[in-house]
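Example 165.
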Amino acid sequence: MAEFLTRKANIDDVKAMHSLLLESARKGMLLPRALIYLYGHIRNFFVAETPEGEIVGCCALAPVWEDLGEICSLVVREELRNRGVGGDLVRACIEECAQLRLRRIFALTYQESFFRDLGFVMVDKDVLPQKIWADCVNCAKYPDCDEIAMFLDLGKGKVEGPRHD
Ligand SMILES: CC(C)(COP(=O)(O)OP(=O)(O)OC[C@H]1O[C@@H](n2cnc3c(N)ncnc32)[C@H](O)[C@@H]1OP(=O)(O)O)[C@@H](O)C(=O)NCCC(=O)NCCS
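Predicted structure in complex with coenzyme A:
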């Protein structure tokens, strides 16, 4: 049996997702998400769980524009990192892109090498104007945000990313 299962999230997962995201947000790694946001956007989320059903990670694929999606709210419990859980969560989001007809995805992040390993390339944030209009201008960090934009064009072939099994 696999060590961790990646699956679509449901309402019962929200409180565990909220506390994982809050812990990482307190360290400045990502934006915190309110419970009401998580309940309302639950369809965007995947979670990773142990065989006992404990939630150890989550990640969202959020449609942004006609063919553009964002990978966001990605977190894995600190002591379980570097075992492939985060990579599996992002790959699950990438697989869902075909169903949603999303051809380009991006993440605003500090995790350059993690996303590079999954086939993303660094781009200037100016190539994501819809994200800037919709969210960034309302963020406390704007315009001095030090996150980088990592971008993946799914039209350029199938993305596997490194597997360690
Ligand atoms: C970013 C994050 C989600 C990655 O989760 P993770 O479970 O550690 O991800 P993975 O294990 O798939 O990959 C992490 C690294 O371990 C490596 N790795 C994965 N499985 C491995 C294995 N079995 N053996 C050795 N190395 C392994 C990956 O190649 C990757 O290396 P790199 O980052 O140096 O390129 C996690 O670090 C995290 O929660 N960070 C805080 C929140 C955050 O920054 N979120 C991103 C916001 S966009």
